[in-house]
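Appendix B: a complete holo record

For completeness, this appendix reproduces one full record from the ligand-bound portion of the collection. The bound molecule is ISJ. The inputs are the chain sequence and the ligand SMILES; the output is the full three-dimensional arrangement of the complex, encoded as structure tokens. No fields have been trimmed.
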Amino acid sequence: MESLVLSIEDQRVCVRAAKGCETMTELRREIDKLDQFIVEVLKFRLSFMERAAVLKETRNKVRDEDRIEAVVDNIKAKAVAVGLNVEFAETVYRHLIEQSIEHEYGVFDAIEKG
Ligand SMILES: C=C(O[C@@H]1C=C(C(=O)O)C=C[C@H]1O)C(=O)O
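The structure of the chain with ISJ bound, as generated:
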């Protein structure tokens, strides 16, 4: 991949491929651009946990083991398809899901149900 073009609403960012970076300064500039985008994606993903907390009727539905394994299986398949280290993808995703569930519990507990 020569570059990655990322867009969120009217924001459009072009991130150069790692091999196109000749200095650490250049390389870190591209990482910073990617990280800004990743943070926005994480925030957007977390908004679905907030909505899930509203949609789930009972607290014991917040943690759904079957769904966790389905998400991880999907990610592992996607990692294979794009050539990303599967163990890396799984570890990152299991952490992300645990943090997401913590957030969802927080939102669920703050809502009065029934
Ligand atoms: C959003 C959900 O809630 C939790 C969060 C998940 C996630 O981060 O993908 C997966 C399973 C759930 O325990 C859901 O049930 O789909």
